[in-house]
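Backbone-to-sequence.
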């Protein structure tokens, strides 16, 4: 009983863990009762049992286990934490419950599993149950099958993933246990109930008897669809609906059930349940030989073997290109029809087994199969039909569209018939979305031709195809194409449409569902196109792309928009004159009708005024438009001589057109007359108004075509010119959608050839407006014109470049709001139509088999010849048709060529193909587009950049959606290549935000994206994190979170955290491209000036732009006026040549990154690059200079360069703002053959880089990559004088761009064919290695040195010598290690190298020889450093390229997280203290400077004036950037300037806001100094490093002494600063000499002042972060951790005086995070015990200073009740100050005072307390206060030693002269503080006064504890 009494007193949670089973049973019972009582699912009580639930279910005692299962079930049902326990609990149930004999236990175990499923943990439960099926115990396997069956039955196939269940069924059927087999049958029946026939294929191989039994059971199942009977917590609405229907019952309920079941039961594809079979390896080894054999029997054997393999219903993806190529050849060329049939069956099998993965090969097979339909044998045709249908399912109609259209005109009627039938079958699988107008139009046009075919079978096939299209997209979409078709044929098409049954039972467009319950209407109307109410259209469309919304947009019921589909519906028969008069008389006054033909003009005028008034007041619905406008032709009609009457007639036409239902019949009645008057001086304006009204009614495309044809049918040039001017303005007002460009181009050509100058000018103006919409392709139509005319056209086009088409203001007033997307789509289609009008060449005949074989030759030179031939063919053709023959496969192979030059050439060809082919490129995306991704796996930046440029060129033509469809993109992301992953993720991060919607296939990329988040490569992880918000923008947080739930637990937590972080930065989806903002954006350049100070150039550009908008007709005159005064340009030359545009360069970089412009990357500059550069330079370069820069005469180029040299000094800022454009222009000059221009260019570049160096400017990545590769090309120039200048420029280049970044460009230069270029590049590489050591290689030292060493065997002597010299320079840096790095060399090459090394005068460095840690050298040297190489200096200092804010933050973190392992702690600097004693740090007067010498220097310092805040900021930034410079003099210059500012308090404001930047720069300099010390052991360099160390530490000291400024330092920067300073202290090299130890003392002073003067909250946060790192990181040494703790102790001593300004909430949150991240187990380890005690001491000290009110400062901690911080504080409240804290303080005090003193003091309280007299509480309170004062426990006086530093005392080192000074300063400080403490006795924190009244027992207890301590 004694034992029972013990455990009965325990709380319930402890009973549950007791070793006595009765105790556990009692605990489970109490827990069950408690679980049933708790109503709040988030109660903290649940947390107590979270870790115990597994023990509940796995109890070894059967009785206790039963009760534990009940309690566990209650816990899972009610606790919000239950989902966290699913894995361990279900595993315990499976292993320890399902094997129990008691049925009740098994039942509860099953309920627990199902309850976990109910709380959204189905996947985890299913995973554990499937594991249980493999258990050897048959009871467990049987129970798992039963639970799976229950789960499927109750939750359904939506919740339970059936694929893994189906996969294990065959295995269960083979079990030895009959019970398991029977239960498996029941499971199979249950699964069949949900997925029906989809279960049959996976079970086709089981025992036939068993299968028959299953078939019988399946036949017994009801035909009604199953319903989910148990619901997840998130499905409570469905649950309520289900329960209500159960209650209602009856027939209505049954009907509702049927409907809901259709929604609830998703269709399961049997294909998804199958296991993929790999067949490529199973093919006969001689398959390819046999299929090419001459004997048909051998070919048949090969095909039969393949056919047998393709019968597998699901195939593993792989490289089927060769197999498909062989089958394609058999189908196309084999004469044996039996083999053709076999090959077609193989194709069908492959396509069906691979599905979407076969889409890559569809483009090769479809044309061949279509051509083969000429075969007449039905068996062959049927096989080909099956093959092409299977192939179509793997691709889209858009991809095969061109191939089908190509055979529509075939001579063989069978081919035409089968092509139409194939279209009909294919369109059945389409939807209105996948069959847009742009695709439907060419198909309908081709099919309508076949409607009139002579062969009846062809006509019938065409009718069937058109009928199918009408069924899919609706009559309204097809009717516009049937306008000229006979009624009988239209009826035939409609009849075919009615007979069509769409694939999958889909409802056709425009047809509502047959069922008509109210609930079914909304989903039925949403996709409906013509019949749905207009109001629902916008609601269904906002998130859809414009093309999806297009058909829905046509719902608008009012026909008024300029669209053929709507206008042709307003058809009207032509009325007779009598009918017109009768209808007009019904609506017009009688007097008006009588006087219309009066001979008196005044009467006619009065009649027309009445006519006009009547029209204005007439009801638009009753207006007989045709009759009214025909009445205007009544004699004298349109030959009216009085201009007033004629003006009124034109006004009436405009009014009738605008107000009534104006048909094209009505328009034809008046158009000719109106066009005749358009050139009239008096009536021209009214005529144009009338034309505009007609255009609004009938659409601009129709009206414009009629007007232009009528105008040019007349001989009046005035009418022609004004008609073109009207059209010019109308296009701006109506937009360009649907305009017949081809007709316009022909008319414009006629106008350009006119003799009348006004007509020519109007034509040029019209072209300029068309250019806004069509762009550069428009220029191609006029290449045959005269040079003078072309120059005039080019000048107009140049003005329009960069402008955006204005938003249409007409033509949309009568349309519904939903028509906006329709209009945008039509404009996009118009753009595509323009491209289609370009004359294209079919190059398939030119791609000969010889050319293809050359491309695939083993000799790389022959391969290059083949590629050159392809380039020539493409260049000659300019615009090509999509047929490329066998070229795609040949080019695909070259993308993986070992010769990288050929890879780049192939990419260049692919870019050419993209530009030349246009939108038709889409059909090649799968076969030739996706292989481009393989290039991104290359390690070379230039190759990957070329690959990305090619990708962007393709995407520009095809759109991005095509690339996101299917599994191809996810397969690419799956490849574990870091280069591919980072480039692909970066590319997606740029491209996806521009999309309004993406295909659902993007979900397939998520698992690979998540794996990238955990990739070992940091760049991949970074890119993946950047891509997360972009993916979330399209997929949504919920989908991504669900996908993350499938990850392993370790990965899941990390990914979910990143998802939460990314959730806050999800970009907004781009809205529908609104045109008003776009139009406004077109004026950004001129309008951007008003907020900033006005610039002359933008303002001057604004006026013409506005004039051009408002008065289009005057545009030609304006142009002539601009060109008129040629002499004025000379006057303009006196002004500035460059204009400084705000953010101009940044905008250009952004446009290039977002691929809005071409990336500056080419082998030879093409015209589009020149034009692009010209466009970019126009706004920021003087006009006269632009003419010289882009003149065809080289003399103008020389003149322009001379002008730039003259203005360089005066316009440095403006030059820098245009630097990227200037450098790009000079790259063009590098391709000129004129030596004079080249020499002048190099001369200017030398001056330019000299000026940039003086300005301390650093090239951006964008500028460097656009210039340096082309500069390196010229280093191989045959002329010595050119090479010399180029070498000089490269030398200067390193002053403005990091050497480590120049290095890759030089490495690429060594691959050139030009031996001079190779030699020069190798010389430069050797120079770089000699100057900056191995750090120049970045991370590729081995690869680079091997590539350099390859050139030792070069034929050219200069190249060999240069390579040898480069390797020798590397040897001088890293010693013998170089032999490992260069790899294997031939004996000859190795002997040459060894000989050269022996002859080398320079010996390897002593420290570098071992080269034991190359990775650390790389990190140290490559972080930010580059090399400044001066031409004639042997010992040039390292130079930091620049401080980049991103690199400063990103690179500081990883480098500061670990102390280098080679640093050893000097024991002389560590005070050997007991664990509980806080060590002391010397205190130094903060006002005295540290004993450091600051060197003098003579450099120009940037002036920091107080005149301008902007200038101050830029100046201080420049000074800070000097601090981080690798040039010692530059850095000291910046440090001294900062020091001067810090010494004058009045100037501190200059540094305010820049403190973090300065500290970061100083830390970068410290890291750079560490790398210098490692890299060079020369005495002079070491002295220079020491001097710079002193300067940095001295300036940091001045900063921390400036209290106000020191308080601005952020916690992160403070953490890095303390980390760096402590690392310096622990560096043994700083303790080798007296100078170094002096530096260490100075660092102590900085740390001491930092603790005192910096913001205490930020300082404590920084120290807590450091302490956390030291506890969790294995890289931190114990000595470093100890130093961090001593800093903590120092801050703890300073807390009494800092407590008032301390942000306690934040500090307590940091302590909470520390305790949360560093587990108790880690803290209790011996190595971390002191850290734990330090944090506890900090907590108790804070409580002692603040009191119980500190509990109010836990507001920032979530779930504070679960926090260890609250627990510690509560323990502190319940007891006196902790023993540890008192012991440590007492022992510290004993170290300061004489040893006898505490003994004497301690006797007094002991004696006093021994008295037994009764005292009141006040007496005890007074005695307690006295004792606390004496022993430093109170706050009435400060401890004498309170401000003493806690870092190691310097006195531990041998005494030196400066030690006396430090000791004296410390003594003075102590004396002054003792006096201050004695005068100012600080009262206790007021929070104590608010406590409860004093208690006598409490005082006695506290005195007792003090007495015990003193003993």
């Amino acid at each position: 009983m004694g034992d029972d009494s013990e455990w009965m007193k325990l709380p319930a949670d402890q009973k549950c863990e007791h070793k006595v089973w009765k105790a556990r049973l009692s605990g489970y019972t109490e827990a069950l009762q408690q679980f049933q009582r708790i109503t709040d699912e988030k109660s903290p009580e649940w947390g107590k049992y979270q870790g115990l639930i597994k023990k509940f279910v796995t109890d070894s005692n059967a009785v206790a286990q039963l009760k534990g299962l009940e309690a566990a079930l209650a816990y899972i049902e009610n606790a919000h934490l239950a989902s966290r326990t699913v894995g361990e609990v279900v595993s315990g149930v499976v292993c320890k419950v399902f094997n129990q004999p008691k049925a009740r236990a098994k039942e509860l175990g099953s309920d627990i599993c199902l309850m976990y499923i109910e709380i959204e943990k189905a996947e985890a439960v299913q995973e554990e149950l499937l594991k249980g099926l493999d258990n050897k115990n048959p009871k467990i396997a049987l129970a798992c099958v039963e639970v799976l069956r229950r789960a499927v039955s109750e939750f359904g196939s939506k919740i339970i993933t059936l694929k893994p269940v189906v996969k294990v069924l065959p295995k269960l059927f083979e079990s030895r246990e009959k019970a398991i087999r029977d239960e498996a049958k029941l499971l199979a029946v249950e699964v069949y109930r949900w997925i029906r026939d989809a279960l049959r294929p996976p079970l086709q191989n089981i025992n036939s008897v068993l299968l028959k039994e299953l078939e019988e059971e399946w036949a017994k199942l009801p035909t009604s669809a199953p319903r989910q009977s148990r619901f997840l917590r998130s499905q409570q609405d469905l649950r309520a609906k289900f329960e209500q229907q159960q209650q209602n019952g009856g027939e209505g309920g049954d009907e509702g059930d049927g409907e809901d079941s259709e929604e609830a039961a998703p269709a399961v594809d049997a294909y998804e349940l199958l296991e993929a079979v790999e067949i490529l390896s199973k093919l006969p080894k001689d398959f390819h030989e046999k299929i090419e054999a001459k004997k048909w029997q051998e070919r048949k054997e090969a095909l039969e073997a393949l056919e047998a393999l393709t019968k597998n219903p699901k195939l593993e993806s792989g490289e089927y290109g060769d197999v498909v190529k062989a089958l394609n050849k058999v189908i196309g060329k084999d004469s044996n029809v039996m083999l053709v049939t076999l090959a077609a069956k193989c194709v069908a099998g492959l396509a069906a087994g691979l599905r979407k993965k076969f889409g890559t090969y569809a483009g090769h097979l479809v044309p061949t199969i279509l051509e083969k339909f000429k075969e007449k044998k039905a068996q062959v045709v049927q096989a080909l039909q099956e093959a092409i249908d299977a192939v179509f399912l793997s691709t889209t109609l858009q991809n095969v569209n061109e191939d089908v259209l190509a055979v529509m005109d075939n001579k063989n009627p069978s081919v035409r018939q089968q092509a139409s039938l194939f279209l009909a079958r294919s369109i059945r699988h389409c939807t209105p979305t996948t069959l847009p107008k742009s695709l439907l139009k060419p198909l309908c046009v081709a099919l309508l031709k076949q409607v009139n075919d002579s062969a009846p079978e062809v006509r019938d096939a065409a009718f069937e195809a058109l009928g199918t299209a009408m069924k899919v997209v609706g009559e309204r979409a097809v009717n516009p194409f049937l306008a000229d078709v006979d009624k009988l044929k239209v009826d035939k098409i409609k009849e075919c449409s009615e007979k069509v049954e769409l694939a999958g039972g889909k409802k056709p467009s425009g047809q509502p569902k047959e069922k008509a319950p109210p609930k079914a209407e909304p989903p039925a109307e949403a996709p409906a196109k013509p019949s749905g109410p207009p109001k629902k259209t916008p609601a269904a469309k906002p998130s859809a792309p414009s093309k999806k919304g297009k058909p829905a947009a046509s719902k608008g019921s009012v026909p008024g928009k300029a669209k053929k589909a709507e206008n042709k519906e307003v058809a009207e028969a032509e009325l007779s004159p009598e009918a017109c008069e009768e209808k007009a008389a019904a609506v017009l006054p009688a007097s008006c009708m009588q006087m219309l033909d009066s001979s008196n003009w005044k009467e006619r005028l009065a009649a027309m005024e009445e006519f006009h008034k009547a029209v204005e007041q007439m009801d638009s619905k009753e207006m007989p438009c045709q009759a009214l406008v025909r009445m205007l032709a009544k004699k004298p009609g349109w030959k009216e001589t009085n201009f007033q009457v004629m003006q009124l007639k034109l006004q009436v036409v405009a009014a009738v057109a605008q107000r009534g239902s104006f048909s094209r019949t009505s328009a034809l009645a008046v158009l000719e007359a109106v066009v005749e008057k358009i050139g009239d001086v008096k009536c021209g304006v009214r005529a144009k108004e009338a034309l505009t009204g007609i255009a609004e009614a009938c659409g601009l495309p129709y009206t414009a075509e009629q007007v232009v044809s009528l105008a040019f049918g007349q001989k009046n040039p005035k009418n022609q010119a004004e008609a073109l001017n009207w059209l010019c303005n109308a296009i701006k007002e109506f937009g360009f959608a649907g305009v017949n460009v081809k007709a316009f181009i022909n008319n414009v050509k006629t106008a350009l050839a006119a003799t009348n100058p006004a007509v020519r000018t109007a034509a040029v103006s019209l072209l300029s407006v068309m250019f806004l919409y069509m762009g550069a392709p428009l220029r191609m139509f006029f290449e045959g014109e005269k040079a003078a005319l072309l120059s005039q056209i080019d000048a107009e086009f140049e003005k329009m470049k960069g402008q955006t088409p204005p938003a249409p203001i007409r033509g949309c007033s009568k349309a519904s709001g939903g028509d906006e997307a329709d209009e945008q789509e039509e404009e996009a289609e118009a753009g595509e139509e323009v491209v289609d009008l370009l004359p294209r060449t079919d190059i398939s005949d030119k791609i000969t088999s010889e050319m293809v074989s050359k491309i695939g030759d083993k000799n790389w030179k022959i391969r290059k010849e083949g590629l050159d031939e392809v380039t020539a063919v493409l260049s000659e053709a300019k615009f090509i048709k999509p047929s490329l023959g066998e070229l795609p496969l040949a080019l695909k192979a070259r993308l993986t060529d070992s010769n990288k030059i050929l890879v780049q050439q192939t990419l260049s060809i692919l870019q050419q193909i993209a530009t030349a082919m246009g939108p038709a490129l889409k059909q090649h995306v799968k076969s030739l587009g996706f292989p481009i991704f393989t290039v991104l796996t290359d390690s070379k930046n230039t190759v990957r950049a070329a690959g990305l440029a090619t990708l962007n060129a393709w995407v520009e033509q095809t759109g991005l959606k095509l690339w996101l469809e299917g599994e191809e993109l996810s397969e690419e992301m799956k490849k574990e290549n870091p280069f591919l992953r980072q480039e692909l993720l970066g590319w997606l991060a740029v491209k996806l935000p521009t999309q309004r919607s993406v295909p659902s296939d993007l979900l397939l990329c998520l698992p690979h994206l998540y794996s990238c988040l955990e990739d070992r490569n940091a760049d991949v992880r970074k890119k993946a994190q950047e891509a997360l918000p972009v993916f979330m923008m399209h997929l949504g947080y919920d989908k991504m979170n669900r996908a993350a739930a499938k990850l392993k637990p370790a990965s899941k937590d990390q990914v979910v955290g990143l998802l939460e972080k990314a959730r806050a930065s999800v970009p907004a989806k781009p809205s529908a491209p609104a045109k008003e903002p776009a139009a406004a954006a077109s004026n950004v350049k001129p309008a951007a000036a008003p907020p900033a100070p006005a610039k002359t150039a933008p303002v001057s550009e604004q006026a013409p732009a506005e004039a051009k908008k408002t008065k289009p007709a005057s545009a030609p005159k304006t142009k002539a006026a601009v060109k008129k005064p040629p002499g004025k340009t000379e006057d303009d030359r006196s002004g500035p040549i460059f204009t400084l545009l705000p953010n101009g360069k940044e905008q250009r970089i952004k446009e290039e990154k977002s691929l809005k412009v071409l990336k500056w990357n080419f082998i030879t500059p093409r015209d589009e690059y020149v034009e692009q550069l010209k466009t970019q330079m126009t706004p920021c370069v003087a006009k006269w200079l632009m003419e010289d820069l882009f003149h065809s005469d080289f003399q103008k180029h020389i003149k322009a360069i001379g002008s730039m040299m003259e203005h360089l000094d005066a316009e440095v800022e403006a030059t820098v703002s245009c630097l990227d454009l200037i450098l790009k222009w000079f790259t063009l000059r590098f391709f000129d053959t004129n030596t004079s221009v080249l020499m002048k260019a190099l001369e200017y570049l030398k001056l330019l880089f000299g000026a940039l160096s003086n300005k301390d400017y650093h090239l951006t990545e964008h500028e460097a990559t656009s210039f340096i590769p082309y500069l390196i090309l010229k280093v191989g120039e045959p002329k010595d004088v050119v090479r010399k200048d180029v070498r000089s420029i490269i030398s200067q280049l390193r002053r403005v761009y990091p050497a480590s970044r120049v290095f890759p460009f030089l490495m690429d230069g060594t691959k050139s064919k030009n031996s001079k270029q190779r030699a020069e590049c190798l010389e430069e590489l050797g120079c770089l290695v000699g100057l900056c050591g191995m750090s120049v290689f970045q991370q590729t030292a081995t690869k680079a040195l091997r590539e350099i060493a390859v050139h030792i065997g070069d034929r050219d002597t200069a190249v060999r010598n240069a390579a040898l010299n480069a390797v020798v320079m590397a040897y001088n840096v890293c010693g013998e290690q170089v032999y490992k790095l260069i790899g294997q060399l031939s004996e000859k090459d190795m002997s040459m190298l060894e000989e050269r090394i022996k002859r080398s005068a320079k010996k390897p460095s002593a420290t570098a020889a071992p080269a034991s840690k190359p990775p650390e050298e790389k990190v140290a040297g490559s972080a930010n450093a580059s090399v400044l190489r001066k031409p004639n200096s042997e010992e040039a200092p390292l130079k930091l390229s620049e401080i980049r804010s991103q690199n400063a933050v990103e690179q500081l973190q990883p480098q500061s997280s670990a102390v280098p392992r080679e640093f050893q702690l000097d024991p002389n600097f560590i005070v050997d203290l007991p664990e509980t004693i806080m060590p002391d740090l010397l205190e130094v007067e903060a006002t005295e400077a540290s004993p450091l010498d600051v060197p003098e220097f003579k450099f120009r310092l940037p002036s920091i004036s107080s005149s301008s805040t902007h200038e101050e900021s830029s100046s201080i930034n420049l000074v800070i950037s000097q601090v981080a410079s690798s040039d010692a003099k530059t850095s000291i210059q910046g440090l001294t300037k900062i020091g001067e500012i810090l010494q004058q308090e009045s100037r501190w404001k200059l540094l305010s806001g820049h403190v973090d930047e300065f500290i970061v720069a100083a830390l970068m300099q410290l890291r750079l100094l560490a790398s210098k010390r490692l890299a060079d052991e020369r005495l002079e360099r070491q002295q220079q490093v020491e001097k710079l160390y002193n300067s940095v530490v001295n300036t940091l000291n001045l900063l921390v002494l400036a209290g106000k400024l020191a308080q601005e330092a952020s916690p992160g920067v403070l953490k890095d600063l303390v980390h760096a300073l402590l690392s310096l202290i622990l560096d043994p090299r700083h303790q080798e000499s007296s100078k170094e130890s002096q530096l260490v003392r100075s660092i102590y002073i900085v740390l001491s002042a930092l603790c005192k003067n910096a913001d205490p909250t930020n300082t404590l946060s920084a120290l807590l972060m450091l302490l956390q790192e030291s506890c969790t990181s294995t890289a931190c040494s114990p000595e470093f951790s100890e130093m961090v703790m001593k800093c903590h102790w120092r801050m703890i001593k300073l807390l009494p005086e800092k407590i008032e300004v301390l942000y306690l909430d934040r500090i307590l949150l940091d302590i909470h995070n520390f305790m949360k991240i560093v587990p108790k187990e880690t803290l209790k380890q011996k190595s971390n015990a002191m850290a734990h005690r330090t944090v506890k001491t900090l907590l108790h000290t804070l409580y002692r200073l603040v009191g119980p009110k500190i509990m109010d400062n836990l507001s920032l901690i979530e779930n504070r009740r679960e926090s260890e911080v609250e627990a510690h504080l509560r323990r502190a409240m319940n007891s006196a100050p902790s023993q540890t804290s008192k012991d440590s303080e007492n022992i510290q005090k004993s170290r300061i005072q004489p040893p006898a003193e505490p003994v004497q003091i301690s006797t007094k309280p002991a004696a006093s307390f021994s008295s037994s007299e009764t005292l009141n509480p006040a007496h005890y309170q007074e005695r307690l206060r006295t004792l606390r004062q004496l022993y430093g426990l109170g706050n009435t006086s400060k401890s004498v030693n309170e401000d003493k530093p806690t870092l190691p005392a310097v006195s531990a080192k041998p005494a030196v002269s400066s030690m006396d000074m430090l000791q004296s300063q410390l003594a003075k400080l102590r004396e002054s503080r003792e006096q201050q403490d004695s005068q100012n006795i600080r009262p206790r924190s007021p929070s104590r006064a608010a406590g409860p009244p004093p208690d006598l027992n409490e005082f006695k207890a506290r005195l007792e504890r003090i007495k015990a301590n003193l003993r």
